[in-house]
Automatic annotation (TrEMBL):
Protein name (record): Chaperone NapD
Chief location of this protein within or outside the cell: cytoplasm
HAMAP family linked: NapD
Species assigned in the record: Stutzerimonas stutzeri (Pseudomonas stutzeri)
Subunit details: Interacts with the cytoplasmic NapA precursor.
């Protein structure tokens, strides 16, 4: 049973020539959604996870994808089972 849900958004900066490959690799990661992109190689990625460690592990994994220059956490929210944010 899920006690809480972590929602996080990231700004991911990629080399523009490797943007498509980076997007495909990010989309393969569980709990990730791609929301916006720019031709300059920037992506907005939203993560959903049950545990904070999963969010941190996913960020670390994204930073290791070829063509990714940086992945920065922009927003994090913890939703409790009752739906209230903490």
């Amino acid at each position: 049973m899920i006690d809480a849900l972590h929602i996080a958004s990231l700004l991911v900066h990629c080399r523009p020539e490797l943007l498509d490959a980076a997007k495909r690799n990010i989309a393969l990661l569980p709990g990730t959604e791609l929301h916006q992109e720019s031709a300059a190689g920037k992506l907005v990625v939203v993560l959903e996870a049950e545990h904070e460690r999963e969010v941190l592990d996913t960020i670390s994994h994204i930073q290791q994808i070829p063509g990714v220059l940086n992945a920065a956490l922009i927003y994090h929210e913890l939703l409790s089972l009752e739906g209230e944010s903490e």
